[in-house]
Specification:
Layout (H helix, E strand, L loop, with lengths): L1 E11 L5 H11 L3 E6 L5 E6 L2 H13 L5 E12 L6 E3 L2
Parallel strand pairs: 2-5
Antiparallel strand pairs: 1-3, 1-4, 2-3
Length: 91
């Protein structure tokens, strides 16, 4: 199991290039994993990497991209069954 950070973000985070922005932030911090849109306008993120970088990533997520508005950010540490070797944008 791989210790990972799972986040659920609410607000104006779909249709505003938020997933692309998240991808760039993850790559700048050497974080692996994925981001995807969920129903009801939410975005889910799974990040793996250095714990300090993941904490910085979480801080950046709360600020959001220039066009987004983050109303809620819920993150928790989980044990994930797969180790990722890149950060990808999912549907």
């Amino acid at each position: 199991m791989i210790r990972s950070l799972q986040c659920l973000i609410t607000g104006k985070v779909q249709g505003v290039m938020f997933r692309s922005w998240v991808h760039g932030q993850a790559e700048s911090l050497a974080i692996k994993g994925w981001v995807r849109n969920l129903d009801e306008g939410k975005v889910e993120i799974l990040g793996q990497g250095d714990e300090a970088n993941l904490k910085e990533f979480q801080t950046r997520l709360f600020s959001g991209s220039p066009l987004a508005r983050v109303d809620g950010l819920e993150c928790k540490w989980i044990d994930y069954d797969k180790q990722h070797d890149e950060f990808e944008i999912r549907g």
